[in-house]
Amino acid sequence: EAGVAQSPRYKIIEKRQSVAFWCNPISGHATLYWYQQILGQGPKLLIQFQNNGVVDDSQLPKDRFSAERLKGVDSTLKIQPAKLEDSAVYLCASSLGQGGSPLHFGNGTRLTVT
Amino acid sequence: AQKVTQAQTEISVVEKEDVTLDCVYETRDTTYYLFWYKQPPSGELVFLIRRNSFDEQNEISGRYSWNFQKSTSSFNFTITASQVVDSAVYFCALSEARNTDKLIFGTGTRLQVFP
Description:
The complex is a heterodimer.
Chain A: E1 5-7, E2 10-13, E3 19-24, E4 31-37, E5 44-50, E6 53-56, E7 65-68, E8 75-79, E9 88-95, E10 104-105, E11 109-113
Parallel strand pairs in A: 2-11
Antiparallel strand pairs in A: 1-3, 3-8, 4-5, 4-9, 5-6, 7-8, 9-10, 9-11
Chain B: E1 3-5, E2 10-14, E3 19-21, E4 24-26, E5 32-39, E6 46-52, E7 59-61, E8 64-69, E9 74-79, E10 88-96, E11 104-105, E12 109-114
Parallel strand pairs in B: 2-12
Antiparallel strand pairs in B: 1-4, 3-9, 5-6, 5-10, 7-8, 8-9, 10-11, 10-12
């Protein structure tokens, strides 16, 4: 079974620029998550999708972050404009969404904002 | 509110030593799940184990074992005879069982195993 795919692996941008990350979940997984992991901290949920609908985006900084999951499969996360404090690893995960199912994570995108 | 606390920021051991990683959680739910994930230097979070709130049996998988105690809200992880390949950051996480798999993570414990 193929795992969660993410791209790019690394990205360096200047502050105020925009950036987008892509995620392809495990086939058949209804639920998709974007987590932000700042260096030295645990992952923090940004947004959760169930199929193509948003379940929880309470911690997404909506003035600069946006995400979509068209057709209930792939997802993109965008930051515009980026700030220095957005430097982090952005992790995509997917799960069956049945309550208590393990999340399966991709390798993440390491973003550096200079 | 849900919360996961991993008080040990970093642990260093020599190969073949046993090591225990502590995890304490808070939740008002009676039904919940607890997880441990491993994050090696490559960065990917690797699922290790899941326990539900109704199953307090300890579990052993090879050199890994987990001790779940509801009375102290703890879910500790022990590695027996540690190896250099065990070096990683380990995260404990909590999720409500109701219609979501969303995880709340602790801050992680960095384990360094020296040869």
